[in-house]
Each structure stands twice: as structure tokens, then as C-alpha cells.
Amino acid sequence: MTSFDHLSIVDGAFLHLERAEMPMHVGSLALYEPPETAEPAGWLGSVRAHIAARLHLAPVFTRKLAPLPLEIANPLWITESDVDLKHHIRHHLLPAPGTIEQLEALAAQLHAGLLDRSRPLWEFHVIEGLADGRLGLYSKLHHAAVDGQAAVALAGVVFDTTPDARPLKPRRRQRRPAAQPAIGDLLTATLSNQWLQLRRFAGLLPPLASAALAGVRAAAQVRSPQTEQSPGSSSRLKLAPQTPFNAPVGSQRVFAGVALPLEQLKVVGRAHGASINDIVIWLCSTALREHLLEDGALPERSLVAGVPISLRAADDSRNNNQVSMTLVDLASELADPWQRLAAITGSTRRMKGEIGRFGKLLPQDFPSLGAPWLLGGLAAMFGRTGLAGKLRIANLVISNVPGPQQPMYLAGAKLSVMYPLSIVVHGIGLNITVQSYLGQLCVGLLACRRALPDIRRLAEHFEHAFEVAAGLPLPPAAATATAPRKSSREAAEPADRSAAPAKPRARPTPAKTAASKKKPRAAPTKKAAAAKKPRRPRGERSG
Fold this sequence. Notes:
Strand order of the largest sheet: 5-6-7-2-13-12
CATH architecture of the domain at 229-312 and 321-362 and 392-401 and 414-483 and 495-530: 2-Layer Sandwich
Oligomer: single chain
């Protein structure tokens, strides 16, 4: 009998929950320096030739879905022997003046469209016409095929570490195109897989029950009135507070990216006993607090973030989903920036303890019979009945994916920055995904247009949150390893600002306005992000 590649229950969920207003793919918007040697077919032709030579190295490029009759269970993966690269790799030309804002708007528009399920679930879009001469590449892959860590592994196939392409593993001899699998073979393979998953799941029940009991006992031992009332802590029985981005989502998206210096943030984190993940969550909390304060919409209780947790082993490069989700309080109700960081650090420490107790036991697959009907019905009901705005498990999703720290090249072009784009769902209309690359922390902000139409303003708040982190005093040992600090008055200003009543933020600054008349805004670089901006009195507006 033919051997099939089965989708896990997690992979399949991303298919069954998908709707026109809720696409379930992940993507990125990257900027490249043009290749030194131009090819006759242009960079579009070079990218197509580059990917064509590597199709056999990554299954995600060639596998497509084989649905089961009546969708009784998850579909299976089969191989597409004739991949149409003109469909999968497309071209766009930005109209003049070719600004970064236009590029971000195009990426948001492309990210809102569904992938064609009759083909392999990926697309690349080459974008030209930027005023600064750089090249853009928007890519998207369905989340049923990859998670964040698998996408990073895929980058190892796509990218080179020099402008010249590296020697590749030879392609196997091409076989005759495979026929569509027979229905009987699909059903037999599916039932066999369901029985196997049922046996595996049953074997996990005893250790799961033991771990759960140990967790309850540990929680009872450390529980006290002081910990219940500590800042930044909350009961998981409570719903997340209401915000403008907790409502059913529409089909339109908005996107903005910002790049921050990674090493300086690491120095700040080490000085205060926080990991880079803690600093990422603190940046999100600080920017969101400032944004919601300006709009008069900051809740009295802490915002809650859903944080994906990778369960993938270090040596596992399979193209599938091995991920769970946990909840972290953002301590957004705290005005003092470092009280906020201390609360976040405590929250993430408790979260890591929970993952350490349960992580290896969490099943990544179990029987999926009936899952397409159940999950599809739940997704439709959640969006149409208004439950999305009432059952608020989290206010947003925050994800941090490590990336390469050496220069990367695609078809001879050097990658300068890469912003991730992820998923928003009914009830959670904002996603913040962070990826590191070449000493930069690349922040991708994606939202439903109705929930957060002014997402560029939130990106500016991230830049200011970095200034808060970089400007506050550090211990002497850490201070010598980072850039000169701001004056004590400037360092104290952000804390006062976030605690003050909401006032409209003057933007852009006069310096930015003058610069924008000379040339379109370029994507933030690590030098630009690290530069200190002149402060102006609160409430002042540019002319």
C-alpha cells in the first residue's frame, strides 16, 4: 500500500479554522540590497531559478493536500510533481514614490488573501520600485505546513551565506507523475493512522495525570495572599480585559515593521536579570500601554498575551507544527517601567515552570475523526455570534522566533531586514511577532484593519519603548558594554509619560517632517533605531 504523510491534529486545525476573514498562513516581508551582477531576466528570474534548483530540498515546496471524502478527518500530504513557479513566484511594481509605507500596505493586502489549496501552500512575491533602490520579497506559507521553528529551518534551504549559490545536493531522478491516490487507499491509511494515534494518546494519560496532580500540589504550597495580590499576577479563571482589538475580525489587514538593536536590548536584559524573551514582552507591554493611554482605552487590569511555546527538539527539522500556547500577564497596569519588567519576569518564570512540568507530555497528535466538521463549525459560530468579544482568553498574541546572525543572501541579493507576519483570529485582532537577524530585533505588527487602523502609530510606540529601555540607568558593569545613556531628565521622562493622563502624541517630529520632504522614509536600521531622538514638550505638535 502507498505510504502517506499524515497531517497532525495541530496541522489540520489550521486548515479547519481557516475562513475568508481568518487566513491561516504565516509570512515575512524582507528587504534586500540589489545583486552586484544583474541577470537579463532581472531579480524575478533569478529568484525563480534559485527556488527551482532547491524544490527537492524542502517538502513544503512540492507537497499539496489530498482531502478525504466528506472531510471525515484530516487530509493527507501528497507530492506535486509539476510545480508552476510562475504562479508561486510573482512580481509587483510599487507606484511612485515607492515608500516603505506603500510596501507595508502591499504586504498587508497580499497577506489577507487565501492560498490555493489545490497547489502547494506557498507563495513568493518579488516587489520592485522602492525609492531607495532596494528589493522587497513578501512570502507566505500555510501554518498547516510549518510552524515558526520549521520556517527558520526552511530559511536554511532558501538562503546562502555568500552572494554565490552554494553547491546543492543533487536532485533525484525524476519519476513519472504520480496519479491521484485512490479513495480506498486514502481511507485505509487514515483509519490505520487514527488507531495508532489513539493508542499513543492512551499511553500518555497516566503520566499526564501524575504531572497535573503534582502541579496542583505545587501551586497549593506556594499560594498565599501576598502572591495573589502581587502586581502583574492574576487568576487564569478571569477573562482578559476588553480592548479595541478584541472583537470579530474582518478580511482586511494592516501591517507595520520596526527594527531595533538586539545587542543593546540583551545588555539591558542581563543588567536586570531578564531574558531576551522577557524584554520582548516588556517592549510589547510598554508600547501597548502608551498606545492605549493615548486613546483613553487602557484597561485597569493587565493585558494578557497568548505566547506560543515550541515543543520541537533541537535536532528536529520536520516541516510540521510542534507548538503549544501559554498565557502571560503583561503588567500593563503598572506605570513604572521596571516594576513592569519585574512582574513580567516573574510571570514568565512561572510559565516556564508549567511548560517544564507538562511540555514533554503534551500530545502533538491524536485522532482527528470529525475534527474538520467540529473545528469548522466552532470557527463560524465564534465569529458570527459575538462570542469572540466576550470569551477573551487573551488580548493579543506575542511570538519570538530566533533567526540567523550572519549575513544571508537570496539569488545574489543581500538580506538587510526581515519582518514576520503572522495570524489574527476572531477575538484577537492583533499579532506581534519578533524575529532576530544580524544584530536586529525585527518586529512585525499585524492587525485587523477595523481593530487597529493606525498600526504605524503603534510601531512608533515600539521605537519609544526602546528609548525607555536604553535611557534608564544600568549597573556600572553593564553600562560600559552599551551606548552612552541619556541625561537623567530624559531617562525619567518616559516613566512620567506613561503614568500621565493620555495626551495626543505629536508626530512626526519636526526633524522627521523635514526629512520626509527630501526623500521617502527608509526602513529602520539598527543605527537609526539606536540614535537618540530629540525630545519635545508633551502635547507639542509639529507645524
